[in-house]
Design goal:
Helix content is 38%, strand content 14%. It is an alpha/beta fold. The longest helix has 25 residues. The radius of gyration is 23 Å and the shape is globular. It starts with 6 loop residues before the first helix and ends with a helix.
Length: 429
């Protein structure tokens, strides 16, 4: 696409956008009686308008049937988790059997590490990103300690080269090769939360397997953002939250992927709960855990129906649109933002504005992270005062995510105009 820095161009792109009608499926926070420019779907997605009706359906079942709602009503709660598997599987490139919606992200990460981090005296190390999101850091550190190892020895943190902000793919592969004999688990985020870097997951997975390690991914910033093919890439396990790009509300239920070669292995160690037990035997209340087939065998408790109803509303939208269409728009929309920001860098070289998200489309999701030394907080506050909801990360980074399901080219244009305005005012002081 040949981009232009004009409102007419942005409006023309929106008029030609086949996904534009889906913008009307969401509630936008208001600023001076108009929709905010909402660019923080990488932190909390907008509320689908249908959420209220989906929750009301389950409230009505509770009101009407009481405990019999487990077996009666539009969506009997006994099988509620099954409503998600096929839709969630499409988003992460899996078989329905390999996916289950349950719990929250860090809980699921711990449960999966119980099964897939099985260290020995000689193969006990975990390779992960340096500066990964804190929940991953804490989970990995505590798991290592639980097994009696010292984190500084057992955890290998991958960091960019001096003066760089991204991990080089070759450096990741080299680290795997160099530490392969001691590595039990390779655990990375699919997309880095801070820079928006999308890692080459299939090649990383293959490299990990080549040295005998298990490979898992935290897809908190990847699920619903970038197209992944967990089954075909032979990933061992993955987990993700649903409240960011998947628009399921604060603290919404999370997802789990377990490759089918593991998912039907009852001998694989796991922490068991009654909802993961063979459903044909579940209510006989007998001793002796027999896991359900697939990822569902990792469940602990029955579905949190009221919290999961918003997730179902959002997944139904994703099912209508499909990840290929979302990715196609995402590349154009984020590309437009990158184009406009590059012009802004040229216009205000003294501002120190630096984009720390990869420039190549296949190495990023729908995010641009802007580093603004010294003046970043002032710029962010100017955006806030003018109806932009973005994300501030200390000490000097503004993250913005043009989400293809509800953001428009005009949103992007106005965001950069406000950035231009802020940099201009600060430049004149």
């Amino acid at each position: 696409m040949h981009y232009q820095n004009s409102l007419d161009f942005a409006k023309k792109c929106d008029a030609q956008d086949v996904l534009a009608p889906y913008r009307n499926e969401f509630h936008f926070p208001q600023h001076q009686n108009q929709n905010c420019y909402y660019f923080t779907g990488n932190s909390l997605g907008l509320m689908p308008k249908k959420v209220r009706a989906y929750v009301e359906t389950e409230l009505k079942s509770w009101e009407t049937y009481g405990v019999e709602g487990h077996f009666e009503g539009p969506n009997p709660w006994m099988h509620y988790h099954k409503l998600f598997s096929e839709k969630a599987a499409k988003i992460v490139g899996a078989k329905p059997l390999e996916v289950v919606v349950m719990n929250t992200l860090t809980t699921n990460l711990h449960l999966l590490m119980v099964s897939f981090y099985r260290p020995s005296a000689t193969r006990y190390k975990i390779i992960m990103e340096g500066g990964a999101f804190p929940s991953d850091q804490y989970a990995v550190e505590s798991q290592v300690k639980f097994h009696g190892f010292i984190p500084d020895d057992a955890i290998i943190e991958l960091v960019p080269r001096e003066g760089e902000v991204h991990l080089r793919h070759d450096d990741i592969l080299q680290a795997i090769q160099e530490n392969g004999a001691e590595t039990a688990l390779l655990m990375l985020g699919g997309v880095n939360y801070y820079t928006g870097q999308w890692f080459n997951m299939p090649e990383i997975t293959q490299a990990g397997h080549d040295v005998g390690a298990v490979v898992g991914f935290d897809l908190a910033h990847a699920a619903g953002n970038v197209p992944v093919q967990l089954h075909d890439w032979n990933v061992d396990f993955a987990c993700w939250c649903s409240y960011k790009y998947l628009n399921s509300g604060p603290g919404g239920p999370a997802g789990v992927f377990v490759h089918e070669r593991h998912a039907n292995n009852p001998a694989l160690p796991r922490f068991a709960g009654w909802w993961g037990h063979d459903e044909s035997e579940r209510f006989k209340m007998r001793k002796g855990f027999q896991p359900m087939q697939g990822a569902a065998g990792w469940q602990l408790s029955n579905a949190q129906v009221m919290a999961m109803a918003p997730h179902l509303a959002s997944l139904d939208l994703f099912d209508q649109v499909g990840m290929p269409a979302l990715r196609a728009k995402s590349e154009q929309l984020t590309g437009y933002l990158a184009f406009l920001l590059a012009e802004l860098q040229h216009k205000f070289p003294q501002s120190g504005l630096r984009i720390i998200t990869p420039t190549k489309a296949h190495e990023r999701g729908c995010q641009q992270s802007m580093l603004l030394p010294t003046i970043g907080r002032q710029v962010f506050e100017h955006l806030q005062k003018n109806g932009v909801i973005a994300d501030w990360r200390e000490p000097d980074v503004i993250r913005v995510a043009p989400v293809p399901l509800y953001n428009s080219f005009e949103d992007v244009y106005h965001l950069v105009k406000l950035l231009d305005e802020a940099l201009g005012m600060l430049d004149n002081k």
